[in-house]
Amino acid sequence: TMGETSDYTGLLCITVNAAENLLPTDMQTGTSDTFVKVVFGGKEWCSSMIMKTLTPVWNQQCKMLVPTDEQSGTVAFQVMTFEDDLLGEAELKLTGELWSQPVQGKVLPLKEKLERKHPGRVLVQIRLKSKAETLSEFLTELANIFNTDFACGSDIQLLQFSSIVACTKPSLPHQAIVALFEEIDENKDSVISVKELRDWVLKDKSNEMKILPSREYIWRVMESVSEKRSVRDIVLSEHTFMHALIGQSTSEHLTAAATVQVKQRHNDHVIEERVPIAAIIATHLKQFASYCNAHDKVVDAKQVEAILSQLTVSQGKWYDNPKSKKQIRPFVLYHRIDVSEMIRNDLGATAH
Length: 352
Description:
The chain is α+β, with helices and mostly antiparallel strands and 352 residues long. 36% of the residues lie in helices and 23% in strands. It is built from 14 helices and ten strands. The chain has helices at residues 96-100, 131-145, 158-168, 174-184, 194-203, 205-211, 217-224, 231-237, 240-246, 252-255, 277-291, 301-315, 328-334, 347-350, and strands spanning 8-20, 34-40, 43-46, 57-67, 74-81, 86-93, 104-109, 121-130, 257-263, 270-276. The strands form three sheets. The chain has a four-stranded antiparallel beta sheet. It has a four-stranded antiparallel beta sheet with strand order 3-2-5-6, with no helix packed on it. Strands 9-10 form a two-stranded antiparallel ribbon. Strand 2 (34-40) and strand 3 (43-46) form a beta hairpin. Helix 11 packs antiparallel against helix 12. The two termini are 51 Å apart. The model is unreliable at 1-5, 244-251 and 288-299 (pLDDT under 50).
């Protein structure tokens, strides 16, 4: 668990690929059952066990945070046996070269503790991500969660920014969010880029705490990102944003409205409508719940439906009327919408 005073300078991304020419520990088969233990900064990570081979292949990844006082530290790769005995160890020092280069492949000779034998070598890949790079990746992924039709490409509009901050700092009043947006938007063009947002966070340590729940939040999230868990999954699974939506009657941000452009079907005129931010985001999250595979769902569709029903009562208009399903097919046909890339394009099923 990270302490509140912890300070990190980067993210260490390691892939343990394989080992070669290991010493046999089973004299009957002439093989070994081994795994790799990675040790750095007081933390340990272990690969899976590979049985009965002297050339195990893992291709497994781990991530470790780099404390500021460990940015020139040493990473230990220990090849362990089934009995948890040390078969051989290699060390890699975090040098300036690693900080400035992309993924580095390393072949590290193992040393046996008595140094009487040559216990083989371990093959790894290593990448050091700086705080600026890690922050950019985090903010880009977070912005994409709320990348609606109202966003301008990679730019972040106030609606997106409000959604991001409501997710990470739900207690912040809407007016305070607007004030932060205006502060970050130095050229006053009503949009901010991820780079602008990143540079603003890095400019002053206090800025980070204005939009994040803790100084360790970004590191904890990025350390947990894997092939199966994205930033979106981790952030939304904490339900901080869902709780804020459900309690939207006390949140200025969520009861505030956004101006959106709507095309009228009968005459193609474009008009502006004021729609509650909560309705836009709840509908967006419901799409995630509907279109993602069951194991990849990050929100409970029933919770979102409850939010939309609550809005229907309070606003006096339908936001989730089941009858509207009948309008999906004619809407798609009328506007000649290309559905070839939709995850679900069974329009016939929604027309009844």
